[in-house]
Amino acid sequence: xxxxxxxxxxxxxxxxxxxxxxxxxxxxxxxxxxxxxxxxxxxxxxxxxxxxxxxxxxxxxxxxxxxxxxxxxxxxxxxxxxxxxxxxxxxxxxxxxxxxxxxxxxxxxxxxxxxxxxxxxxxxxxxxxxxxxxxxxxxxxxxxxxxxxxxxxxxxxxxxxxxxxxxxxxxxxxxxxxxxxxxxxxxxxxxxxxxxxxxxxx
Length: 202
Known about the structure:
With 202 residues, the chain is mainly α. It contains six helices and two strands; from the N terminus they run αααββααα.
């Protein structure tokens, strides 16, 4: 009858909701905060320093300290916690320098300790801020602000180094990139030779 209604627990739906909430949840709020704090603070100080003080030395030291703290925090803490990536330089017994790039492997259950929200925050901050410093570099160059050029170049170098390192961690070594590009170009060339003019068999 219509009155006989049985309550059924939708376990699959509950699992989907909990899985979705885990992906969107920020598991390392302190790391996420400091991932953006130092780099955004350096940009704000650069934009407002002439309004706050007339001392160029004080502004330069403050910006460089913020950039240095950002470089250390992103390289050693936030990258490992937020996206499971890390990179460093190691010198062997022969004195040769080796760059090492690592990515955390998924656990046996296939779960990841980093969430999608943290990953978005990490990559957004990592990519956007160096682009802003590049814009500052061109602005300082074309406006002939030579004294600010060294500070801006420091921002481009420090934040660009972290960006380069984490991209290498994410996509693999240069050899892997080269082989991927070679394979792709080879496939495109063979496709053009086999089917000239873009014609493909149906």
